[in-house]
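Changelog note: in this version the structure field was regenerated for every chain. One regenerated record is shown below for reference.
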Amino acid sequence: MIGWHTDVEIYLHRQPVDFRKAINGLSVIVEEQMQLSPFDPALFVFCNKARDKLKVLYWDQTGFALWHKRLEKAKFKWPRKSKEDIVTLSHEQWLWLLRGLDISRLEPHPELYFSHA
């Protein structure tokens, strides 16, 4: 699997998209519907209506790249009940989504910060 930097923003377009769209069509969705720049250092993630395919659009400083994943016998646990049209994921949640886990039900332990032992 491709290893993206852990500090990259990850944005899910929650509504399904027509998977005949390629780089140009998806970058228009990023600009017009998501109100983001496709040139930002981010992953823009799209799902089809059947939720068995993902497309990831990103700019790598030399051009656009498009990554496509198809599941053979399963569906992605897409966050359909969110009130927002765009869902921002942590790198950990992104890996959970790719592994088939329901990101809306998983929450890691809260981080704790101490100044003294």
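Spot check on this record: The chain has one domain: 9-99. The chain has a mean pLDDT of 86.
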